[in-house]
Amino acid sequence: MTPSEKFVSELCEKSFLPFWSFASPLGKKNKELCDVLVVCNNTIVIISIKDIKVSEHSDENIQYERWQKKAILGSIDQIYGAERFLKTVNEITLSDKITKIQLRPHSDREIFRIAIAFGGKNEFPLDNGNFGNGFVHVFDEPSTFTVLKELDTITDFVNYLKAKEDFLSNKIVSVPREIDFLALYLTTELKFDFVPDSVMLDDGMWEEYIESEEYKYWQREIPQSFIWDEIVSHLHKIHIVDKGNSEMMSDLEKATRIITLEPRINRIELGMTFIDAIKKKLKGRMLPPYKDSDHSYVFMPLSHKNWESKEKELQLRCLIARMENKNAPKVIGIAIGESPDKEHIFDIAYFDIPELNDEMLEKIVEAKEELGYFKNPVISRSKDMRN
């Protein structure tokens, strides 16, 4: 595989993209639309990748001009062409010529454009901006891998693209490397007491950032989130690889997408809460919704004590969580543990109940009182959880 083909393959297999990334989908006259198309809810990311060798011309200016024309401007032309095609359709056909991916209505789409240029010299400038038909992010090989490594959830990645576009709009920009701008974003979230007219960054900001105490603290925290990544991988295997029970796929897919949308900072706390519940051998734990979220979580460790009734218990705990979190109509329940045969077991429950009527509330209260689920509140890491 060429470096660019290998990159496309790895990009589509990364833990935060397998549900939404599609390599070489088909466009006009069944020709390749772009290298990778990401479709996540109303977000569409068009990615074009070019692997172009630098000319052997002795003049570096000519080297750059020729490389830029093929590696960057060629990608931008493909991206704009793909976007024009997307404006004419409501679904996309994948490279297998069979599978169809439905798109949101045109008025509800948010499109991001990424041109990835391989093969250039590290000192070649990479201009980001509007090249006539919308903002295009231009990455080289090193910056691409660093950005995807640091922003390794779909939510974190898209938030970065959006913040960068908003911040750089109508500004004079001098940024040596994408990773230096990434350092600025991670340390400031691009929020300042004033709105700058121009942006000039020193080369070396990224190296300075990764030596900082802030970055070292973040790296120490991240491992707590890996259990959440394992849950995502497990659900991906059920949903995409093994094509599980078709009757359950709709709800499973909805729950899976919600779980996968959690940004890294949420995953750290979710993972920590999950691990804590297992270590303390709690019967269950409820995690209320995060700010601006419409879903809560229920975690339930499995043991021989609740093995026979695990599905019913998980469902009842989810219904109690729905009652307790009035502004969160969706509840995701996750149970994990070992079976009596020492097999690792993973169960998931999903509820989306916009309103609870009086009859449902009465039954939930009765079950809560009779079974003792979530009766004793505890506080952990500034989050309101119940055992």
Architecture blueprint of SSEs:
Elements: H1 3-13, E1 21-23, E2 36-40, E3 43-51, H2 60-86, E4 91-93, E5 100-102, E6 110-118, E7 129-130, E8 135-140, H3 141-150, H4 154-168, E9 172-174, H5 178-188, E10 198-200, H6 205-210, H7 213-221, H8 226-241, H9 249-260, H10 264-279, E11 285-287, E12 295-302, H11 310-324, E13 330-338, E14 344-352, H12 358-371, E15 377-380, E16 383-386
Helix pairs in contact: 8-9, 8-10, 11-12
SSE string, helix = H, strand = E?
HEEEHEEEEEHHEHEHHHHHEEHEEHEE
Question: How is the largest sheet built, in terms of strand order?
Answer: 1-2-3-6-8-7
Strand content: 15-25%
Rounded Rg:
24 Å
Please outline the major beta sheet: 6 strands, mixed
Distance between the termini: 51 Å
Q: Which spans have pLDDT < 50 for at least 5 consecutive residues? A: 244-248, 379-387
Give the averaged pLDDT, no decimals.
Answer: 85
Shape: elongated
Instruction: State the share of residues found in helices, binned by percent.
Output: 40-55%
The overall strand count is: 16
Class of secondary structure makeup: alpha/beta
- Counting DSSP H or I runs of 4 or more residues, the number of helices is 12
Which features characterize this protein?
387 residues; alpha/beta; 6-stranded mixed sheet; 4-stranded mixed sheet; elongated
Plain-language structure description:
With 387 residues, the protein is an alpha/beta fold. Helix 8 (226-241) runs antiparallel to helix 9, helix 8 crosses helix 10 and helix 11 (310-324) crosses helix 12 (358-371). The chain is 42% helix and 21% strand. Residues 244-248 and 379-387 have low confidence and may be disordered. The longest helix is centred in the first third of the chain and has 27 residues, at 60-86. It is built from 12 helices and 16 strands.
